[in-house]
Amino acid sequence: MARKKKITKKFIKKSAKAHPQEELLLQPLRGTRDILPQEQPYWQQIRRVSEKAAADFGYQRIDVPILEYSNLFARSVGEGTDIIEKEMYSFQSRGGEKVSLRPEFTAGVARAYIQNGMNVLPKPVKLYYIGPCYRYDRPQAGRFREFFQFGCEAFGEQDAILDIQMIQMAWRILYLLGIRNAKVHVNSIGCPACRKNYRNLLVRYFESKKQKFCFDCKRRLETNPLRILDCKEDKCVQVAAGAPQSFDHLCDECRTHFKEVLEYLEELEIPFELDPGLVRGLDYYTKTVFEIYSESPEDAKNSALGGGGRYDGLVKTLGGENTPAVGFAIGMDRVAAEMKKLGARAYREPKPRVFLAQLGGLAKKKSLKMFEALERAGIMIAESFGRGSLKSQLKVADRLGVEITLILGQKEAIDETVIVKDMTSGNQEIVDAARVVDEVKKRLKK
Ligand code: AMP
Fold first, then answer.
1. CATH topology of 40-191+251-342 equal to that of 354-445?
2. What pLDDT is stored for residue 33 in this prediction?
3. How many Å apart are CA 249 and CA 83, to the nearest integer?
């Protein structure tokens, strides 16, 4: 057994010197933040509307871990991407495993799909998720290091109708949240076969102009030339403007697929534009890619509210069967900010209709059970048990604008009754405590 060290004053002093306390910074880490109660109605509205839409379109919820093996993301998002190269929170666990905080959900959901044998389920397998993601990016307006996504993935269907259903859902969710000026940017980056040809064409075009590139794009020319197309640096934007466009170089199958997507978009009357610079920062995409922007004039192009696309090769890359798939994610932080900016309706908690006031020791004790009985009966009830005086409790009831106040005093507690006060007429009546739920229900119905 280990010998216990006697804790003397001298020992404490010595150990404090050896382990000086770091200063406690009372603030969250850069790029992360608290979402305070006053912000929550926007978030609650986003959760409610998104989850309702997911259920309406036949999606089931899946939760996957925040922490996964690093190589899951490296293999799916892609080694040469900004997310993997610069933005992942990666570390070694105490057990020596290389792990990362998820920078996005698709990789984890695809891993869960394979591992749990969901390939035997009727297709398409439709899943949705909601939760935090982590990217060590430079924080700025609308860009956080911890941010929240809601998203959907559908596995096992290659028809373009599903690509469009994803766009329809994302657009509809934003519309229902009051973002009525959203516009879809859409592109097709083809399948690995046509992308190879397109990539060669691009490299040939970019090679002659590489001296004009920013530092990152010089590197991207070797590792991921498609990403040069969505670089935001002015000089790179200028070069990219003259570059060959992917939808002009699609193979027959990809061209037909993309044509269908555009036809369906027109059919749905969703505002959209073809965006040849849209390549998305993740390697697993194939064919359709899209992003949704709010069209308010002051919105910079780099703040998409959501995005997604097809990723027909990902499940196979991770060791599963050949499984076409498509998905999208909405950035909840940006959507909440946009709702606020547009003055969109946030969620309103249902207001309490009844207030329970108490006076005296016995009444206070009994009021706990009475509160529970009313709450169990589904009655929206409020209290302010901590306040001693009846006057101050009634003030709270007034402020809340309840229809009925129940008053449980010392006498009522002994008699097992309660005073029922109609707040509109001011009339009071004494009823048996055992009948209080029925009495309140009857009055509220009126
Ligand atoms: P992505 O997986 O990069 O396509 O992201 C999907 C959506 O998540 C984007 O359209 C944004 O709305 C949101 N998003 C991505 N990165 C961030 C970030 N760093 N901070 C806030 N929202 C983000």
1. no
2. 97
3. 27
Distance separating alpha carbons of residues 131 and 104, to the nearest angstrom: 10
Q: Is 2 exposed, middle or buried (0-12, 13-18, 19+ CB in 10 A)?
A: exposed
Residue 148 alpha carbon to ligand 1 centre in Å:
8
Q: 33 C-alpha vs ligand 1 centroid, how far in Å?
A: 16
Ligand 1 contact, 306 CB (< 6 A): yes
Counting from 1 in the atom list of ligand 1, the atom nearest the Cα of 142 is 21
Token look-up 């990809």 returns 254
- Give the fold, CATH level 3, of 40-191+251-342: BirA Bifunctional Protein; domain 2 (3.30.930)
Could you state, in order of their start, the residue ranges of all structural domains in the chain? Answer: 40-191+251-342, 354-445
- Mean per-residue pLDDT, 54-66: 98
Mean pLDDT to the nearest integer, 148-168: 97
The 10s digit of each residue's pLDDT in 340-360 is: 999 999 999 899 999 999 999
Best residue for ligand 1 mutational test, from 149, 177, 189, 279 (most atoms within 8 Å of Cβ): 149
Ligand 1 atom closest to residue 143's alpha carbon, by position in its atom list? 20
Q: What is the CATH number of domain 354-445?
A: 3.40.50.800
How large is the average pLDDT for residues 406-433?
Answer: 96
Task: Measure the CA–CA gap between 219 and 409, rounded to whole angstroms.
Answer: 77
Mean pLDDT of 384-392: 89
Q: Take atom 1 of ligand 1 and give the residue whose Cα is closest.
A: 307
**pLDDT exceeds cutoff 60 at 206:** yes
The first and second tokens of residue 335, run together, are 């959507």
- Whole-Å CA distances, 406 to 325, 349, 366, 380, 413: 57, 22, 13, 13, 12
Helix residue spans in 142-191 (DSSP H) = 160-176
Q: Is the pLDDT of residue 5 over 70?
A: no
State whether the beta carbon of 82 lies less than 6 angstroms from ligand 1: no
Rounded to the nearest angstrom, the distance between the alpha carbon of 53 and the centre of ligand 1 is 20
104 within ligand 1 shell (Cβ under 6 A): yes
Q: Which residue has the tokens 């029925």?
A: 438
Q: What percent of the chain has pLDDT over 70?
A: 95
Q: Return the ligand 1 atom nearest residue 281 CA.
A: 3
What rounded mean pLDDT belongs to the chain? 92
Mean pLDDT of 327-351: 96
From the CA of 315, how far away is ligand 1's center (Å)?
Answer: 22
Beta carbon of 135 within 6 Å of any ligand 1 atom: yes
Residue 6: per-residue pLDDT: 65
- Which residue, 324, 183, 329, is CA-closest to 257? 324
What does the pLDDT look like over 9-28, one tens digit per residue?
776 677 667 666 788 889 99
